[in-house]
Structure formats: structure tokens, C-alpha cells
Known about the structure:
Layout: E1 2-6, H1 11-22, E2 26-33, H2 40-51, E3 56-61, H3 84-87, H4 99-114, E4 118-120, H5 136-149, H6 151-155, E5 161-163, H7 171-180, H8 205-216
Helix pairs in contact: 1-7, 7-8
Amino acid sequence: MKAVILLSGGLDSATALAIARHQGFDCHALSFRYGQRHTVELKAAQTVAGALGVVDHKIADIDLRLFGGSALTAELDVPKDRDEAAMGDAIPITYVPARNTIFLSFALAWAEVLACSDIFIGVNALDYSGYPDCRPEYIAAFETMANLATRAGVEGTTKITIHTPLIHMTKAEIIRTGLELGVDYGWTFSCYDPDDQDRPCGRCDACKLREKGFRELGLRDPLS
């Protein structure tokens, strides 16, 4: 039983991979070098993939800097020191236009080649920065599209399922689940704006949400 797992190298995607593995899937991990400023996350993805024993790990090269429009792919400031209310108030400049649609499309292509029907993505709609492509209705729409857009779906031989095991979890619940499944979060990296020594800033939304999760469990983040 095969599955394609979108693996950024962050806390959420590592947990999604651990869950897929625990459910008995042979995991094929897919990461992206897309022009992001925080490329250190790809080193983390390789570490996570190796530690959790994926069958294969591919890194696809696409350059979303061609379009820009995000603080992750253009010379724009990453928001810092925002509270939870501010994070949920509007879609932030760290949103990368159509990123999950692009990533899921690549995963769908690989799944079709592998003749597998399962794709895992670590999106979350509770403790997150308000991205539109992390919502349940988006995932449901993509899954419908996937089954209309592939030969296997049209011929009825395979029904594509997009698994989102974290979508209704808080960060604390995600961390607890990963720890129970043997994830060492020292392998992972979440910061949007690391320094020149690849250390997390501790102030961007991703860092603050990660810190919140560990704090609620009474634990210390191994990267802090």
C-alpha cells in the first residue's frame, strides 16, 4: 500500500509522514525547492525522510520567485511578533499564491505513476496563519478535481484520497501525536526567516505557533 507524502521538513509534515507510516503505508516523500528563502527546511526534510524510513524521497525544482507575491519568494519582509488575533485576521504576506495547489498537483502526478491512490498533506486549519489552501473545503475540492483529472480516476480503477490527518488538530495535539509515533522534532525546521547560520528567528508566525504548541504541552522545543 503506497502513499505520496508532501514533506516540507516542518513540524506538521513530519507528523503527517509518521501517521502515514503508522497506518501501514509505504511512504514516498515529495519536497520542493521552490525559491523559498528558508531552504534549510530541505535539509530537515532529508533528515526526516531518512529517520522515518521512506521508500523514496524526491525534491522537485520549481521556481516560484518567477511570480513573487509572497515574503517567502520575494524581497518582502516576513511579519514578526504578531499575536494570535493578528494571525487570524487576514491572509498574511507569507502566503505563497497557489502553493498547495501546485504541490498537490505534483503529488497527484507521482501518485498516478506509482499507481497509488493516497496522498498525505500536513495542512492544519486551527493553529495556522490563515492560508486559504489549508481549509477542509479546499482539500475536498482538490480531491474531486483529482478524480476528474487522472486516467485512473476517469477509468474508475483508482479513487484518489487526499489525507489531512492534522487538519482539525491544535499544534499541541500535533506535537503530542508525533512524539507518540517517535518523531524527534529536532529533525524538523519551521522558521520562515532564519538567520545566516540557519537558526530560527523565534518571531515569525511559524516560530510562534510552534512555540505555542510546545508550551501548551509543558515541553521545550528542541530547536529553541
